[in-house]
Specification:
This protein has helices spanning 24-31, 56-64, 115-126, 143-152, 168-174, 187-199, and strands at 15-20, 43-47, 68-71, 82-85, 91-94, 100-103, 130-134, 155-159, 181-183. With 200 residues, it is an alpha/beta fold. Helix 3 (115-126) runs parallel beside helix 4 (143-152) and helix 4 (143-152) packs parallel to helix 5.
Amino acid sequence: MTIKTDTKKQMLIKAVVIGVSAGGFKALHRILPLFDNSFPIPVMIVQHRKAENDSFFVNSLKEKCHIHVEEAIDKTRIAQGRIYIAPGGYHLLVEKDLSLALSVDSPVCYCRPSIDVLFESAADAFGPNIIGIILTGANADGANGIKAIKSSGGITIVQNPKTADVDYMPLAAIKTNAVDHILELDEIPRFVNNLVIGSN
């Protein structure tokens, strides 16, 4: 199912941000390996994790993905064709100079890392040249971030809540009326590959 969007909007895509919570381990392990091995732009991800989480999550993605995967480090300059994962217990932000920043500011929607924090900062940094994606999850984190990306002129995508492990987060994003596309999980990487590789 797709919400109608402007099919003439063919801007240069410079980054992808993904937000996910409950059910995210399985969802990310399904879609990220399907991103093209020549994927030319950075991907920043917030998966709700606690500060005491170990490195298993990131290491397991490294083994599955064609693209380099790493946990985000404060003050790192964003590199092309890499996947950055927010560390547990830290907000992940994109700075205006396109470096990454980590913060221990108060939780947002009871979460740190917060999807809203990443999406809102990325919308400020990349403007219309960004894709925001919300996947399965159990709270409303990401809804304000989706609105920020839409307001900046970016493209917004949500996993079909009917087939998400947990539908609350996708539904909250859809209720903002700021979602361009509602897609099945396995459709998302193909759709993003076509948009990104076709625009670069």
